[in-house]
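Encode chain A's predicted structure.
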Amino acid sequence: MDLEKVKEFITLAKDEGVAELKYEEKDLKISVNFNASTHVVSAPAMAAPMANTAAATAPASAGNQSSDHNYHVIKSPFVGTFYSSPAPDKPSFVNVGDKVSKGQTLCILEAMKIMNEIESDITGEIVEVCVENESLVEFGQELYKIKA
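Encoded structure for chain A:
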């Protein structure tokens, strides 16, 4: 297996949201771990289509500080589809200018047909929503900027 094929294989796994990848041939072994330090907590069930809901928060660290105006950045803990509201006919969880509290639901990320609530890990004001509703987000992609 040449290096380009290995890179393609790893990129594909990462794009599909695979947490860990292992590949073995006769004399070749590849092991890659994409695991982020994401905390997953059970949450109450939402509406019927979203029954198996889990809450996930982006890790709170100095790495979550954006360079522009020192805003706190909420990043995607995994690859998934971003939903700004609990249902298509419902209003967004948060909008620019809204005050949010630590633990407040900001959005839902769908991965493998599981709806995961993304919560704020700080109290502050939403200054930017960085993605559009129903768009695909990558691991580590900025979702929100919050002024603490």
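The two ends are 49 Å apart (CA to CA).
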